Structure prediction request, 828 residues.
Amino acid sequence: MRAEVVAVGTELLLGQIVDTNSAWIAERLAATGIDCNYQTRVGDNVARIREVLVTALSRADAVVVCGGLGPTQDDVTREAIAEVMGTALVLDREALAGVEQVFRRRHREMPASNRRQAEVPSGARIIPQRLGTAPGLICPLGNRLLFALPGVPGEMREMLERAVLPELGARSGVAGVIASRVLRTWGLGESALAELVAPRLAALEAAGEGAPTIAFLARGLEGVQLRVTVKAASRDDARRMLDREEATLRELLDGNVFGIDDETMAIRIGALLTAGRATLAVAESYTGGLVVSCLVAAPGASRWLRGGIVTYASEVKRELLGLTEGPDVTAAAAMAMARGVRRLFGADIGLATTGVAGPDAQDGQPAGTALAGFASGGGNDATSFEIPGDRQTVRELGTMNTLDWLRRRLEAEH
Amino acid sequence: MRAEVVAVGTELLLGQIVDTNSAWIAERLAATGIDCNYQTRVGDNVARIREVLVTALSRADAVVVCGGLGPTQDDVTREAIAEVMGTALVLDREALAGVEQVFRRRHREMPASNRRQAEVPSGARIIPQRLGTAPGLICPLGNRLLFALPGVPGEMREMLERAVLPELGARSGVAGVIASRVLRTWGLGESALAELVAPRLAALEAAGEGAPTIAFLARGLEGVQLRVTVKAASRDDARRMLDREEATLRELLDGNVFGIDDETMAIRIGALLTAGRATLAVAESYTGGLVVSCLVAAPGASRWLRGGIVTYASEVKRELLGLTEGPDVTAAAAMAMARGVRRLFGADIGLATTGVAGPDAQDGQPAGTALAGFASGGGNDATSFEIPGDRQTVRELGTMNTLDWLRRRLEAEH
Prediction:
């Protein structure tokens, strides 16, 4: 089965916003086993939207169009679809009731313009709105299907998962359930990870139809992710298949997996600290607050995070953390900072970063030199990284490297 | 003049990476006065790239295609263009010399596969590479033009500015220079800003051809930007027009402009502190290190930033910052934190944040309640914000609101 994605909005063509919807839709289509050969962006213009839809429908079994379902005169996706279907727009009572209900829930009067959102091409079914005001549309065109979704990312995603993917999955002859799980990794690049799991990829390929599929997604500061997708007869079967595949991959990936699905590095570290009943405090030099702000993003961080200090001026390191005079970018300094912040905040564990973010060298150390220090009741330790890139990259990768080092330490003790 | 953008890469169709190149190119085309009605994404497939290029060339005067110029067998944009031009690929000696030079500079041997990057469709001119290995291409097709650029964002942008926009500007009959300037604002939404500058927009519209144009770009945490674009006979004339327009807009925008072009909020604050010979220290509660990490991102921050502290546990606020017992989310607490961090770090100015990031209320205050505190030798002050949104949004918008509040204070004293 082949599908195409069409994003509607003049603001996309002017580059005023980046089209992230198409990538999201494409990724979910791929995970559902549906091919996507083309994606198109077009402005708020009936004739041009119509042309793009006709072209897409001539090449694909299904088209997902997003955007242009709002209440203003600019929003003309409905009109273009009606022209493609050769029908007129008619007021849909169910859709209107849905729009009215959204305004009632918000205790606001519905502007007359929002009635437009309940006009649907005759012959189309609506996808009831849950998050926003615009209902989605399912439009049959012979043996092809056209889906229209709102352009607001949250609304689009919810409707895609609820109404579009199941319908496409059913149409593409996938019996049962499609489910996926993301393994989040840090520490190796995409090609090194691919090498580690190469035997498994080969085995799955040989197993053919019905075997789990694995996709690599390079997510920058969130690491490289492996998405495992399975097709199964039931939700329970799917979960069992995912559990098995996760176990197999974890063995091959040897500690590089830090989280599953929505589990960020901070959430994982929080879980490990909570399990060990330990609290943490962080002293940062070149990372300048990124480590602690990353940790704070985990819900419930106040249970295990005592706080952090950014000692950007060298004399502050000495006064507040008790460092002695000497070069600041050394393993000894990183450990002294970790000990100092542990004491200052009364935490069980102290974590510290020191390094040269650049662009210039410092204390005879080139930009990209970075160290992390660790202190606990059991002793001290330090590690170092060489990080290529500009100032911001050094700080960001240094932050993730430091957190991952802590994560591995905590897992080893666990 | 009309142009289209085509992005090539199977990873785009799989949603493995988001296509930011197309938005960038579209924005620069719009600023150069060139219309763009369609953007297309297609995978690494010769027949499909050819089809997309033929369609685009049938609708537009120029097509900019990016991606697929790499050295691997997947990179087939060159082949597709040769088919569209009806010519063969030939080895270009200048292009080959360029590729070889890149490897010499990196002290690495050139893999044989990189010779592919020097094969260009007969009749095409190359755009010499400066940042990466792939040269760009300028391909005449009758009275139309096809440009091919690498997919690596930095390389693409450099070639677009250097070789594509000037050529398109000249072709579109724009005599002289096109220049633009970005006014970065914080504090008002896009529609409120548009209202403030409405009289000026109307005057420019009435002035017609030759008058500066103004575009609004909503940039999330970087604020709303106004891009002013002028066409002039010379670079000096363009600069004078931009200076005049900036002055007019600043008057209408009344303090909401915090920076120009690449001047971030942190860079602006650093400049104001440097001018006033003052140093800063930051105490953060709900923002959890975002304020200080934002400031550290400014080059040379060590000259004016003493450091910061994240007092996530309430008892740490009392021990290290000297707060007295009591509710932590108040103006008094924000000012006490600012005083405390000023003293702790020996800084001229103390800045503090306290609030409820959510999702739950705290001390009887709803999520989204946020305060900022200020302390200097001259006294203390506090302000409050109500921020809608989830935990991360509250922290991010609270950070920018706090920094903008500091910026306005420093400007007022300046």
